[in-house]
Amino acid sequence: MQLVTDLRRWRLRDFHWGADGSGLVLALDDAGGRRRWLAWLELRSGAITRLTPELSADARYAGQIAGDKPRILMSVRLPRAKGAVLQSVTTTGEVISEWEGPDEAVSWWLANEVAAVAVCSGASACRWWQSRLADESWTVMADIPAVDAQVSRPVTMHRADLSLFATSSAGRDTIALVRMSGPACAPEVIYATDHYDVTSVLTSADSGAPEIVTTTDPDNPQIPLTDGAAADLSRLRHLAGDAPARIIDRNAGHCLAEISNPVGGPAFVTFSRTSKAVSKPLARYTSLSRIRMHGRTPFKYRARDGRPISGFLTRPPGTPPWPTVLVVHDGPWARDEPHMDPWAQYLASAGFCCVQVNYRGSRGFGKDFRDAGDGQWSLAMQDDLLDGLRAPEVAEAADPIRIAAMGHGYGGYAALMLATQDEVRLACGISASAPTELDRYVSGLMSFGGGTGYAYASRIGDPAAERDKLVSASPVTHAKSMEIPLLLFHGRQDACVPVSHLTAFADALRRAGNTPEVIIYEDEGHAYSRPQNVADFRLRTLEFLHTKLIATAGPDC
Questions:
Q1: What CA–CA distance (Å, rounded) separates 36 from 75?
Q2: Could you tell me if 413 and 436 are in contact, meaning their C-beta atoms sit under 8 angstroms apart?
Q3: DSSP character for 546?
Q4: In whole angstroms, what is the distance from residue 345 CA to residue 296 CA?
Q5: What percent of the chain is predicted at pLDDT more than 70?
Q6: Distance between CA atoms of 376 and 371, rounded to whole angstroms?
Q7: Which residues, including other chains, have CB under 8 Å from residue 92's CB and lie 6 or more apart?
């Protein structure tokens, strides 16, 4: 395996193997991240050809047509157009055909050489239409309720009978792989679990049928649906040994996999599906090539109300108990994944045990689990984190008098609110870009965040009807009870959580007699992206944790 091209000028969002195996379809973001475009990467030469016809267009991958003259099908939204159109282009960027959708604005397309599915998003529901490309007569396949629209998605069509395979949570709690066929198009569940969502599907290069399902279950992340897929996963387990591994993509002849090696971390390999050929590994993080990785293991427990919760534990060298850092993910709708986490490895390398919890409100575990976080900032969501620190696997690893909490955004907010409770005493806390006045934060989201901001804010609370509750759940309200050392970060240009959240909170702490360490990056927004600031953030965090959790504990710890 070798590097065939340099993509540093663009951000690679996704890729798809060409039908004939000679190249890759790349999905790239422009410099500002405002638009996406597609390109063809010729593997032998490393040459990149732009497929999106106009610089101002926004494009998404829709499918491919194999043959002597392979073509790429893409969903293209042109400037000032009502919706997206479907285009067929050659690998040299020549537009061969173009199709318009039904009499509704199309959000995006899925297509093969015979038929297409057009997704039309509305205010109250999302409608899926199907048509044969030869006649362009449209038939409604499904009406997806708004609550399920964002997580329901057509995946592939069977080339023989045009059955549609999709991931959807309509009519159920978790996201399942379903099949829609026949005149009624009633969904038939192909694969589903009660507690974990289907996140992606790998399909057959020949028929288009699904063959491998990826889920959020940390104990069983990839499930084969065919004998051929089972053989591929068995081969991967043989290659990886005890190391975590997953198949990322596959075509008729090869599989592309990622193996998290104990030394060097994640590396990409390709292996033949018809022979014993295996490529040389290509390291994902070249700077870790000789570094031994620290074990990352999943753990499960039940919260105090009986709800099942999962998380991950990354242990440092040596023997427990260790100084421990609870790292709370942002969102709060994001989730921690079973794959190698660079931040967890960074902490473990410095001697800290890293605990990560997918508390209620996290995405990937069903609608009920997601909705259980509504209105629960500093309440049940915080209880989940505390119960995670008490889980048997964590209790055996953590030194109870040397525990810290840290996070960014919601994670930073949670770290601050954890400093106000007495169930599990923290030694220190680190918070970055955190909202500290929830009533003001929610009002801003509803006023200036558009539809997405309003939907997010409504899950936190109503700034008018629930103002007292939001004020009570605000870190600034509890400044007097925060006696532990705190390290606070923020970006001066943060439009999501204005820097005044930090300054007002820091002033309240000082009035209460707690002098926090405050770092404001003048050239950053809500997320920190400049390399010098990221390096500074990591260094200050590590020095703070070492001072508060290790140096003050004495030479025997």
A1: 11
A2: yes
A3: I
A4: 9
A5: 96
A6: 10
A7: 40, 49
3-state secondary structure of 151: coil
CA 34/CA 307 separation, integer angstroms: 39
Distance CA 430, CA 213 (A): 37
- Whats the size of the chain, residue-wise? 557
Say if residues 140 and 134 touch (Cβ distance below 8 Å).
no
Q: Cα dist. 70→28, 100, 296 in Å?
A: 21, 21, 43
Please compute, for residue 372, the number of CA atoms within 13 A of its CA located in the half-sphere on the CB side.
Answer: 23
* Chain centroid to CA 389: 24
Taking the C-alpha atoms of 279, 285, 288 and 290 in order, what is their torsion angle to the nearest 10 degrees?
10
| Residue 386 C-beta-side C-alpha neighbours within 13 Å | 18
Whether the predicted pLDDT of 557 surpasses 60: no
Does residue 237 sit in helix, strand or coil? helix
Query: To which residue do tokens 């694969």 refer?
Result: 191
Q: Can you read off the two tokens belonging to residue 388?
A: 């995670």
Does residue 10 surpass a pLDDT of 80? no
Share of the chain above pLDDT 90, in %: 68
Question: Minimum mean pLDDT among 109-123, 323-337, 362-376, 478-492: which range?
Answer: 109-123
| pTM for the predicted model, two decimal places | 0.88
Quote the strand ranges of 366-427, DSSP E.
398-408
Compute the distance between CA of residue 108 and CA of residue 518 in angstroms, rounded to an integer. 45
Q: In what order do the strands lie in the sheet with 153-157?
A: 153-157, 164-168, 176-180, 188-191
Banded pLDDT at 473 (limits 50, 70, 90):
very high
The residue that leads in pLDDT, 211 or 162, is: 211
Q: How many CB atoms lie within 10 A of CB 30?
A: 15
Q: Which helix (H) or strand (E) holds 498?
A: none
Average confidence (pLDDT) over 366-388: 96
Task: Provide the 10 A C-beta neighbour count for residue 186.
Answer: 11
Give the whole-angstrom CA distance, residue 155 versus residue 142. Answer: 14
- Give the model confidence (pLDDT) of 269-304 as tens digits: 999 999 999 999 888 888 787 888 998 999 999 999
Q: Are strands 517-521 and 486-491 parallel, antiparallel or unpaired?
A: parallel
| CA quadruple 11, 14, 16, 21: dihedral sign | positive
| CB-CB contact of 102 with 138 (8 Å) | yes
Distance CA 215, CA 193 (A): 9
DSSP 548: I
Cα separation of 199 and 179, whole Å? 16
Cβ contact 59:105 at 8 Å: no
Q: Report the pLDDT value the prediction gives residue 447, as an integer from 0 to 100.
A: 86
Q: Find where tokens 């804010």 sit.
A: 457
For residues 129, 134, 136, 138, the Cα torsion angle rounded to the nearest 10 degrees is: -40
Cα dihedral across residues 355, 12, 251, 118: positive or negative:
positive
pLDDT tens string 185-242: 888 999 999 999 999 999 987 888 999 999 999 889 999 999 999 999 999 999 999 8
Q: What amino acid occupies position 166?
A: A
